[in-house]
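Dear support,

Our group has been running a series of protein-ligand predictions, and this particular one with S-adenosylmethionine is the one our PI (initials K.S.) wants archived with full inputs and outputs. We had some confusion internally about which version of the output was final, so please treat the block below as the authoritative record. The input we submitted was:
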Amino acid sequence: MYRSLFIVPVSITMHRLQNRLFGRRTDDEPAPLRHPIDSQYGIDTSGVISYTQLSSGKAADKYNICYGGSQPSIIRKTLAGLANHHALTFLDLGCGKGRALAVASEFPFRRIVGVELAPSLVSIAKANAEVLRSKFPDRTPIEVVEGDVLAVPIPTGSVVVYFYHPFYRGMMKKVARKIEKFVKSNSGIDVFVIYYNPVYFDIFDRSKKFRRIFAKTIEFEPGEKGTGPSYHDESDAIAVWRSADGATADLSPRSYAEIKVVPPGWRAFVVK
Ligand SMILES: C[S@@+](CC[C@H](N)C(=O)[O-])C[C@H]1O[C@@H](n2cnc3c(N)ncnc32)[C@H](O)[C@@H]1O
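Confirmed final output from the archive:
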């Protein structure tokens, strides 16, 4: 009796977890709704796509989690907290269809660059970039590069590196080492890491090259609920680190907030 009370809920939870990890939805969850930013801009960034449909033929495929776009309201609030956008390149590592890039184009960044592994998503991100370029000729144009993030160089100068839980820990560790090397060999520049759903936050928290300056779970805005990987989610966590030289003046109590990951490897929450 006790055994079945335990086993049944655990097996349902594991089934849901596996579905979520592999970009599949459970029977009781409707398909993701079209995101309002797509109607606002006339672009296509909606949906969740399993890693099985994102094959590039490269070794990095085995670390790929899935495609889903981050919530624009949460990116906007976070980018608004940065100063001097003109001096920074926004670099989305695993840009998917380019939703975060579209939001970044609302800010006067020096450059806006996305790197994406899956060729099918690169085509969509490039088409979206073209729509935005013709609608908003005064905005910074969006550049989309096809490839594995480990193979594509980090643009020169100060940079905001953006992630939305794109790959498993093994790849995130390698990418973090690459960013650390970049910081080490480019003294005097500012490097920010913005990590949406920071499931492997500990990699950056432990880095000697970075200090955490912000972490918060932020509510979605009306219209965004039902558009993400899980229909029932109403908020997401986001955290920001800054290269150690620049970060000392910025540390706030928020930066030390505890981050929990539940279920493991899937969703991060900032404990209030
Ligand atoms: C969760 S989506 C995030 C999309 C986008 N950053 C956003 O927030 O709207 C993660 C993306 O990372 C891509 N990706 C995974 N591994 C990659 C790699 N090694 N190099 C480049 N892109 C990768 C996936 O194909 C997927 O499109």
